[in-house]
From TrEMBL:
Domain HTH lacI-type positions: 2-57
Tagged with keyword Transcription regulation: yes
Organism: Pseudonocardia humida
Protein name: LacI family DNA-binding transcriptional regulator
SMART domains membership: HTH_LACI
Domain of life of the organism encoding this protein: Bacteria
Length: 345
C-alpha cells in the first residue's frame, strides 16, 4: 500500500509538505514543489485516506446536515446532493431533522456536535433570528443553505428571480388575476418568492390584491386550504403561483374538489421541480431550483468558515420549466388532436 511517506520520498519533500499540498481545505498551490507532489501521487497511485486525515486534525471528516424534515421531498433531494458533493471530497454527510422548531434544532445541533462533526450545513434559518447552536456556539463551523438569516454565510437559489419568472410567465399568457399561495413568514425563501411575485405584477402595472394572497406553510395540506380560500373568492384568480410544489399539489386537489380543470379553468405554477411534478396527470409548470450548485456552494462556504474567512452569500439562478398546467385564460393547454385533414395540409 502506497503511503504518504512514499509520496514524500518520491517528491523529495517532507511528509508535512505532502499533507499541505493535498489538504483540500487550503487554496490550491501551483508552485513547482506542489506540482512535483501531485506528479508523485499520480505515478505511485497514492489514495488519500480521508478518515485518517480527519483524525489527525482531531475531526471525523463528517458534515452534519440539519433539515426541517425528510418527508419534504425538497429537503430529501437537497440532502442527497449534499451527501454526493461531500463524498466527492472524501467527506461523509449525516442528517438530523427538526420539524422546523428552533428548540428541536438546538438539540439536533448539539447531538451532531457530540458526534464530532467537522461542520454544519443548516437549511432551517429564520429571518433575523440567530442560529440555535446551543452550547456549541460559534466554535463549530456552520453555513446556511436554501434559506438565510441575513447575517450568516449562505448558499441559496435566487428566489426573487424564480418567483418573478413564474409570475411573468402567467402575465405573458394573459392572466391578470394571479393568486399567490404563500409560505411561512419566517423563511427567507417564502419571503423572497412573495417579493418576486409583487415585483413582476408591479412591472406589468397590475395592482397587488391582498385578497389573492393565502397560505402560511410549505405543506400540501396548507396548499389545499389556501387553494380553497382563493378559489372560493367572489372573483377568483384565473391563475395561481404557489411558492413550492407541495402547495401547488394541494391547490390541484382543491381545484379538483371544486370541479375545476387545470389549465382550462385555472393555470398553476409551482416551485422547486421535485421529481413527481413532471409525472402528474397534468404535469406542473414550475421553477427548477439548482440544488447541486447550491450544495457545492454550501461545502465551499463551510471550507471558508473552517479557515476563519468572513461570511459571504452564494446565489444560484433558477429556471422556469413550462409544462401543461399553464395556458392562456379560458384555453386548454392540451394539444389539439391531429386530423386527417390537418395531416394532408
Amino acid at each position: 500500500m502506497v503511503t504518504i511517506v512514499d509520496v514524500a520520498r518520491a517528491a523529495g519533500v517532507s511528509k508535512s509538505t505532502v499533507s499541505r499540498v493535498l489538504d483540500e481545505r487550503l487554496p490550491r498551490s501551483h508552485s513547482a514543489t506542489a506540482e512535483r507532489v501531485r506528479q508523485a501521487v499520480a505515478e505511485l497511485g497514492y489514495v488519500r485516506d480521508p478518515l485518517a486525515s480527519g483524525l489527525r486534525r482531531v475531526g471525523t471528516s463528517t458534515v452534519g446536515v440539519v433539515v426541517p424534515r425528510l418527508t419534504d421531498t425538497v429537503m430529501a433531494v437537497f440532502y442527497e446532493e449534499i451527501a454526493a458533493a461531500a463524498a466527492s471530497r472524501g467527506l461523509f454527510a449525516v442528517v438530523a431533522t427538526t420539524d422546523d422548531q428552533p428548540e428541536t434544532e438546538r438539540v439536533a445541533v448539539e447531538s451532531l456536535v457530540r458526534r464530532r462533526v467537522d461542520g454544519l450545513i443548516l437549511t432551517t434559518a429564520r429571518i433575523d433570528a440567530p442560529t440555535p447552536l446551543g452550547q456549541a456556539g460559534a466554535a463549530i463551523p456552520h453555513v446556511l443553505a436554501l434559506r438565510t438569516n441575513g447575517t450568516s454565510a449562505a448558499s441559496l437559489g435566487d428566489d426573487r428571480l424564480g418567483a418573478h419568472l413564474a409570475t411573468r410567465h402567467l402575465l405573458d399568457l394573459g392572466h391578470s388575476r394571479i393568486g399567490l399561495v404563500c409560505g411561512p413568514s419566517y423563511a427567507s425563501s417564502a419571503r423572497d418568492r412573495h417579493a418576486g411575485y409583487c415585483n413582476a405584477l408591479a412591472e406589468a402595472g397590475v395592482p397587488i390584491d391582498d385578497t389573492l394572497l393565502a397560505g402560511d406553510s410549505f405543506s400540501m395540506e396548507a396548499g389545499e386550504t389556501a387553494g380553497r380560500t382563493l378559489l372560493d373568492h367572489p372573483d377568483p384568480p384565473t391563475a395561481i403561483f404557489a411558492v413550492n410544489d407541495n402547495t401547488a399539489i394541494g391547490v390541484m386537489a382543491a381545484a379538483h374538489n371544486l370541479g375545476l380543470r387545470i389549465p382550462e379553468d385555472l393555470s398553476l405554477v409551482g416551485y422547486n421541480d421535485i421529481p413527481i411534478v413532471s409525472r402528474l396527470p397534468v404535469p406542473l409548470t414550475t421553477v427548477r431550483v439548482p440544488f447541486q450548485p447550491i450544495a457545492l456552494g454550501a461545502l465551499d462556504l463551510l471550507h471558508d468558515a473552517g479557515n476563519g474567512n468572513p461570511p459571504r452569500t452564494l446565489i444560484a439562478a433558477p429556471t422556469l420549466i413550462p409544462r401543461r398546467s399553464t395556458s392562456a385564460p379560458g384555453q386548454s393547454g392540451r394539444p389539439l388532436p391531429v386530423t386527417a385533414t390537418s395531416k394532408s395540409a
